[in-house]
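User: I've been trying to design a sequence by hand for this structure and keep getting stuck. Would you show me what you'd pick, starting by listing the structure so we're on the same page?

Assistant: Good idea, let's start from the same input. This is the structure you sent:
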C-alpha cells in the first residue's frame, strides 16, 4: 500500500512538473506571438508570468523581452529597470553591450542624455566593428544632447570615411554660428533696449509688432497723463502696466530664442543621422 502511494506521488509530481514546464513554454511562445502582432500590453503580462514561474531560469532573455514590451508602451522607466536586470544576467559580452544600448535609448527618449552617457561609460571599446560603430553613435548622441558639441563631432566623425568629415564639420560649424546668432540672452537684451526687436530678430514679426505697439502705446499714454495730471499720477496709473508688458515682452523674446535653438538642434541632429544612414555602408 505504501509503495503504491509513493509511486502515485512520484507520478503526480512528474506530471505536475511536465504540465508547468509545458505551460511556461506555451506562455512564452504566446507572449512572443502577441508582441509580433503589436499587442504589447498582453505580451508584457505573459512575459511577466514567465519570469515569475520560470524557477529553472530556462528563459534568460525574458527580462529583455519585458523591457522591450515596456519600451513599446512608452514606459521608459520600467523598460530601463528591466534592461538593468537583463544586463546583470546576460551570458555574453556582446549581449550585455546591446542591452546597455537599449537602456541608453530609454534615456534618449526621456531627453536624459547625462544618464545615457553614464551607462555608456561602463562599456569598454568593443572589438566588433558593428558594436564599435554603434557605441560611437550612442556616445555622439549623448554628447550632442548635453551640449558638448566638440566631443559629439569627434565621435560622429569616427563613423565616417575621412572625406565625409568635412561635410560633418560644416554642419556643426553652421550649428555653432546659429547658436551664437540667436543666443537667448542676446535676444532678451535686444527686446530690453527696444520692445519687439528680439521678436523681430527671431522672425516673429507679428509678435514683435504687438509688443512694440502695446508698450509704445503705454508709453504714449503715460506722457499724456503726465502732461495733464502730473508725473505722480502718470507713474501710478501706468507703471504697473508698463512693467508687466515690458518685462513680459523681453522674457517672451528669450523664450522664442530658446525654442528656436531647440528646434534647430533637433533639425541638425536629424541631418547628422541622415548623413550616417546615407553613408552607413562606407563606415570604417
Amino acid at each position: 500500500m505504501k509503495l503504491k502511494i509513493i509511486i502515485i506521488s512520484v507520478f503526480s509530481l512528474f506530471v505536475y512538473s511536465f504540465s508547468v514546464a509545458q505551460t511556461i513554454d506555451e506562455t512564452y511562445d504566446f507572449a512572443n506571438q502577441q508582441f509580433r502582432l503589436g499587442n504589447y500590453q498582453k505580451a508584457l503580462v505573459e512575459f511577466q508570468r514567465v519570469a515569475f514561474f520560470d524557477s529553472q531560469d530556462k528563459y534568460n532573455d525574458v527580462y529583455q523581452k519585458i523591457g522591450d514590451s515596456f519600451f513599446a508602451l512608452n514606459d521608459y522607466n520600467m523598460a530601463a529597470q528591466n534592461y538593468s536586470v537583463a544586463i546583470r544576467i546576460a551570458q555574453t559580452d556582446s549581449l550585455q553591450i546591446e542591452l546597455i544600448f537599449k537602456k541608453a535609448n530609454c534615456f534618449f527618449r526621456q531627453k536624459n542624455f547625462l544618464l545615457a552617457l553614464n551607462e555608456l561609460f561602463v562599456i569598454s571599446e568593443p572589438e566588433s566593428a558593428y558594436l564599435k560603430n554603434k557605441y560611437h553613435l550612442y556616445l555622439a548622441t549623448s554628447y550632442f544632447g548635453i551640449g558638448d558639441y566638440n566631443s559629439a563631432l569627434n565621435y560622429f566623425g569616427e563613423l565616417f570615411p575621412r572625406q565625409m568629415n568635412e561635410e560633418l564639420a560644416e554642419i556643426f560649424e553652421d550649428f555653432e554660428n546659429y547658436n551664437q546668432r540667436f543666443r537667448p540672452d542676446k535676444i532678451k537684451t535686444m527686446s530690453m533696449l527696444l520692445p519687439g526687436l528680439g521678436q523681430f530678430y527671431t522672425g516673429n514679426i507679428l509678435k514683435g509688432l504687438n509688443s512694440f505697439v502695446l508698450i509704445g502705446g503705454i508709453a504714449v499714454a503715460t506722457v499724456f497723463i503726465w502732461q495733464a495730471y502730473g508725473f505722480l499720477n502718470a507713474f501710478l496709473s501706468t507703471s504697473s502696466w508698463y512693467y508687466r508688458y515690458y518685462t513680459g515682452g523681453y522674457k517672451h523674446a528669450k523664450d522664442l530664442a530658446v525654442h528656436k535653438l531647440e528646434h534647430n538642434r533637433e533639425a541638425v541632429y536629424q541631418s547628422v543621422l541622415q548623413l550616417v544612414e546615407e553613408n552607413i555602408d562606407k563606415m570604417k
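That's my pick for every position. To get oriented when you compare it with your attempt: The two ends are 75 Å apart (CA to CA). The CA atoms of residues 36 and 43 lie 9 Å apart.
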